[in-house]
Amino acid sequence: MIHTVLGPIADDELGFCLPHEHIWCDQALAPRAQLFGTLRNTNTQMRLDHFGHMLEELKAYHDAGGRSIVEVTCDGWGRDVETLARLSTESQVHVIATAGFYIEPCLPPIVADWSVEKLADHISWEIEKGVNGTQHRCGVLKSAIHRARVEGLELKGLKAVAIAQRRTGVAITSHTTGGRRQEVPGGNVGLQQLKILKSEGVSPERFIVGHVDERPDITVLSQLASEGCFIQFDLIGKEHWLLDQTRVDLLGELVRRGFVRHLLLSHDRNRHHEMRYGGGSGYCHILENFLSRLRQTGLSDNDIQLMTVANPARAFALS
Amino acid sequence: MLRYPLTLLTKEVPRLNLRPTSSWLLLQDVHAPFMCLPGGALAEESAKKVLDSEFEEYFGTVKKLGPNISQLVSAARDHGLGVIYSCLGYEEKSTPSRFQRALGWNWSLEDRAKLFENAWQPVDGDPVFAKPGWGALGNPLFEEFLSAHKIENLIVAGAMFDYGIRQTCYELSDRGIGSLIITDAVVATTLQSHTITASNLAHGMVKLRSLAELLDLFYVMDQKSSVLV
User: Fold this and answer.
1) Hey, what domains does chain B have and what are their CATH numbers?
2) Mean pLDDT split into 10-residue runs, chain B, 229 residues
3) CB spacing of A215 vs B184 below 8 angstroms
4) Can you spell out the DSSP letters for chain A?
5) In chain A, whose CA is at the least distance from the CA of B216?
6) The whole model's pTM is what?
7) What domains are defined for chain A?
8) B155 touching A, CB under 8 A?
9) What ipTM, to 2 d.p.?
10) A38 chain-B contacts, CB cut-off 8 A
């Protein structure tokens, strides 16, 4: 069973799934935005907030063959489960909402004020009962690490997420470092997160390491997959980090190494200009452009079905 | 589209240890020619050649980040860090460098009172080094100073990020000295150039933090006498 904002669905109803996207968010709401710096360009900050546009984006995705999206906006920068529920109803796309914590500049004050246990209670409630008094439940937990190390409030959030995972059985998806990636051994803080999660009793099979395609190191990716984690190429189409061709090459190599059952694909759309109405390819880039390149590199339809349908179903099913 | 393939291959930036004895603040090219509006050489030259629009982003950023530089200097002093100035120009008893003659930027650094904005004026004892070219280490006295004071890393702010500060940070890195660039206290000629420079520098021995993040680090440094970045 998988929790969507409209209620539970069977694992095999999930269909083609994008496991790391935003549909409704606004980074201008970040409680500690000053940490981003004075020069941050507010014209290109993460914001999706037009109902009509986003409905069209979701319908286009559905028309292209997409069936579900994991919406990874956390409390602190505009998560709105009621809007997500309306969009899901009208677009026929399953939407999974997220409990947990984004990076330090976006953390709500409760993360500093409350104990780890109280935070765990709070996010467990969002999964088991609903968000902010609604019936709309979250179906995944998130841990985001902005720093080069897991420390401070982000560590506190991760520990709360670990407790909530053990209670609820949902997966943990992660944001790993972003602008600090040059300071992290192997380019990804996922190994540090995994070590802490294991020490807190979380199974690696319940951990999705996000943003591995910002600064990928094939050795680290293989290690994470060997441990049992999902490794998520979720910046597909964002070629300023890495060329899509490099992503294709890396995915091909990981499949050859036997890790196809650990791979997930997504775009992490979060800005107007990335959407179709803003001139981008929206949620359709993987379906319309990227999968054909994977096939050209020798991956089979079965490999692709695993990465886009079966693996997400396994990842987001309650354990 | 901006891409940075070399940074995909380089090893991670090692941690910097900030502490008052071995960490100093370097203010580079914060003197009048670059930071004074109007009246600075860059402002006057661009106006004379009807190139103001080309420098619109630069001047806009100077105005925007001036208060950050001011706050940074105050914070560094309050937390016990020394402040070093390095400025393109020449001392009175010296002569302009070949670089300065080539550019026509042969500015005397003698009249200190007029050289800096009040908000970041050097105080008694702050060393002010002449910079013969883009990099601060072009002046051997600057390097001797770093060595004599056992300086392990520098917090870096100032103007001409994409030319002078970049050069200085690479030179410091070559010598094993770490740099912590305050991204909203450095001014590049354009915002795009700021992004390119920051992204390419963020490997080797150079780290990037916003001013707000640095102030948080100073808070920890006060409590523990040093802080790892």
Assistant:
1) 15-223 (3.40.50.850)
2) 85 92 97 89 92 94 96 97 97 92 91 89 94 97 97 97 98 95 97 92 90 96 95
3) no
4) -EEETTEEE-GGG--SEEEEE-SSEEGGG-TTGGGG-TT--TTSSSEE--HHHHHHHHHHHHHHT--EEEE-PPTTTT--HHHHHHHHHHH--EEEEEEEE--GGG--THHHHS-HHHHHHHHHHHHHT-STTSSPPEEEEEEEE-SSSS-HHHHHHHHHHHHHHHHH---EEEEE-GGGGGGSGGG-THHHHHHHHHHTT--GGGEEE--TTSS--HHHHHHHHHHT-EEEE--TT-TTTS-HHHHHHHHHHHHHTT-GGGEEE-----SGGGSGGGTS-GGGHIIIIIHHHHHHTT--HHHHHIIIIIHHHHHHS--
5) A35
6) 0.93
7) 2-316 (3.20.20.140)
8) no
9) 0.88
10) 64-65, 68, 184, 210-211
